[in-house]
Amino acid sequence: MPPPANHSLPHSLPLTLIVATTPIRVASSTPLKLQDPNDTPTTRLGIGLKGTLPWPRIKADMSFFARVTSRPPTPGTTNAIIMGRKTYDSVPKHLRPLAKRISVVITRDQTGAVKEGVLQELQARKAKMAATAKAKAETDVEKSLDAPADVVPEPITDAIVTPSLDAAIGELDSVYGKEGKLGKIWLIGGAEIYGAALRMDAKEGSEALQRRPVRVVMTNVLRKGAEGEASFECDTFFPLDGMTAQNGWRSASPEEVSEWVGEEVSGEWKKEGDVEVQMVGYERLH
Ligand SMILES: NC(=O)c1ccc[n+]([C@@H]2O[C@H](COP(=O)([O-])OP(=O)(O)OC[C@H]3O[C@@H](n4cnc5c(N)ncnc54)[C@H](OP(=O)(O)O)[C@@H]3O)[C@@H](O)[C@H]2O)c1
Fold it and tell me: Which of 238, 228, 81 is nearest to 162 (CA)?
């Protein structure tokens, strides 16, 4: 498909937070106030523990995340995944930057060390992927000399390092959007970056951030122990305890979420070992 006549990105391109959370019962304020009789327990949405995920590998969620964030909306485009530096560091070294996506790492580091590290890892990853692709191409040619396959442009693997969310969106727009090469924008965490995205004010934000719908694609994770529901220990939480009409959100239908992610999402709970997962979506009302 040829790039659109106007290569600049429409500013209505949604920003979608993708997150897996588990409900944790905590005091409504700080743990120190637990004894306060006016302090009622509430539920927070746990997302992390000690720099990593609170749960052992959940295949259904990891493969959902990989498919959804890497599948471009049109051939010739590549999705961006925006993350905090700590979330980048939490990705296993041999997998980062994640393939077939533009990783955008946000950091306050001004020494250049974070940028240098990410770019070195990008070079190493690209070299490894090129070697794998070359070996595969040679095997494919041997297998099907007389049946050349249709060439579909693959999403690229790239990485940039920026000092803020605003700068991240601006750079994605100006570098990849202008060339018609940017697909969807996913915000993949962690808590600090979700918080920065949710604090964005459509009216006060830069032009690059204005008028973009803000969405959340959430995997709910529940653990079923021998004696019923059990929780995972968490030290990092999603910045909102829930998304309701009262705090300016609406629940999206499974059909809408399916359209956002590019595959069918039923909204049903699915069992995997002792956990159950469910994918749902929300859109900010204003
Ligand atoms: N369940 C999920 O779906 C999910 C998804 C993602 C992450 N996680 C978990 O969440 C945890 C990490 O979250 P986190 O909140 O601790 O860290 P984070 O948001 O991933 O990264 C925080 C870092 O981002 C940079 N940063 C944050 N705000 C910034 C700003 N306004 N301007 C410039 N730079 C900024 C800083 O990097 P520098 O320190 O380099 O300056 C900061 O230390 C881990 O446990 C991870 O496994 C869970």
Answer: 81
Host H or E run for residue 70: helix 59-70
Domain that holds residue 194: 15-26+40-141+152-284
Of 108, 111, 186, 206, the residue with max ligand 1 atoms within 8 A of its CB, to mutate for a pocket test, comes to 108
The alpha-carbon radius of gyration of the chain (Å, integer) is 20
Residue at 31 is within a domain = no
Q: How far is the CA of 220 from the centre of ligand 1 (A)?
A: 20
Distance of CA 229 to the CA centre of its chain: 27
**Distance of CA 105 from the midpoint of ligand 1 (Å):** 9
Summarize pLDDT for 136-171 with one digit per residue, the tens: 887 776 666 666 566 778 899 999 999 999 999 999
Atom of ligand 1 nearest to the CA of 20: 3
Q: In the chain, what percentage of residues exceed pLDDT 70?
A: 83
Q: Are 101 and 183 within 8 A, CB to CB? A: no
The whole-angstrom distance between residue 166's C-alpha and the CA centroid of its chain comes to 17
Q: What's the gap between Cα 121 and its chain centre?
A: 20
- Domain-embedded: residue 2: no
95 phi, psi to nearest 5 deg:
-105, 0
- Using a 6 Å CB cutoff, which residues line ligand 1? 19-20, 47-48, 51-53, 83-87, 90, 106-109, 114, 163-164, 188-193, 196, 236
